[in-house]
User: Fold this.
Amino acid sequence: MSRFTTRRCGAQAVLVLGCGALLAAGTVAGAVAKPPAPRHTPLASAATGVTSHGISKAECAANRRAGTIIFVTSYSYAPAASIADVVVAARRGYFKDMCLHVVLQPGFSTDNVALVSADRVQISSLGSDSEVLAARAEGAHLEGILAYGHTAISELITPGNVKITNLRQLDGKIIGIKGALPYEVSAMLAKAGVNFASLQLVQVSYDPVIIDQGRIMGLPVYKSNEIRELNELGYKYEAWDPTKYGVAASFASLVVNTDFAAAHPTAVADFLRADIAGFWWAYRHKDQAVAYCDSRVPPELASDPAGRFRWRVESGIVVHSTPTGEPIGAIDFRLVAAEYAQDLRLHLVPAGVNIHHAFDARFIGEIYRGTRLVWPTRFS
Assistant:
C-alpha cells in the first residue's frame, strides 16, 4: 500500500469567453501570482509558440517529445470541475491542436497522489489545495499547477427535524463521513468551537437521505451533488456553509509530476491551455459537456440530470470565486497561505511545506495575457 493518501475519496483575432476570454495574441506575460525566487524566473522553455494563428513548429515538436500524457480523473467521469473540462478538451481535439497525445483514464483522488508521484500518471486532479499540501508533506513528487475553485465546494448539513441553531450542539453527536471530513468542514467546526474529540465519526454511504433517519446529526455534502437529490425528494435539512465562517478553501486542483514538468514545460503549459479552452467551451455548452462525460461510462451510470446540476453549480462557482483581476485557474498564493495556516492550526497537514515549491504558477502564467487565454482562433 502506498504511503501517499489524500483526504477525499471575438472579433477578428479575439474570441471572448466571459471573464477568462480566449486571446489570440503573440507571446504571453509572466506568472499570475508573485512567488519569490526561484519561481519568479521564466520557465526554461517558455510556452510562447502559440498565437492567434496556431502553434509554432518548434513548440509542436517540443510537445510531441513529451510522449503520451496520462491524465487520471479524480472521480470517474463525473461532470465536475477538473474533469468535464479535460473530457471536453479531449473530445474537441484541443490537446491534439497543441500537438499533445493525452490519454484519459477514470480514477479517484485517493489513488492519484501515488500515481502522479511515481510518474505512472503525469497529470491529475486533487480535491483541493490542501490535498496538494498534504501530499507534499508526505514527500510526493508532484506540484500544483492550476486551481479552479477558490472557495468551499463542501458544506455540512444537519437534520431538518432537529433544531440545531449552533454547531456546538453537535458535540458528542454522530457525524457521517465518506473517508474523512473535508478540510473546509473541519475548519468550520473548529471555528464554531465544536469539541472535535467528542464527535463520533462513522463511515456512511453516498445516500444523503440518511440525514433524515434520526441517527446521523451531521453530514458533509457537495453543494453540486447531494443537495439536489434532497431537494427533489423533499427532505428538510439545514446547510452550514464554511464560507460564512471565514474558512479558506479551494477545490479542483491540477497536479503534475515534478520531473515530467521539469523535462517538458511547454507540454504542461499547453495541456493547461487546452484544458482551460475546454472549460470555457463546457461553460457555454453545459448540456453537451455533460453528454461528453456520460459518453465515457455505461448508460446505466450516466449522470444526467444530476450531472447537469453538478456542472452548472461547479462551473458557476469556479467563475464567480476567481479573484478579481485573475484568470480562471490561477494559483492564489494568498489563499494557499491562508489555507495552509488553517490546516496547521487544526493539525490537518504537517508543518514544513514551502507553498512556493508545492505550487508553480509559471505554467498557467505562460498561457495568459492578463485574464485572457492565448488560444488560436481556428481551433475554437
Residues 5-40 have pLDDT under 50 and may be disordered.
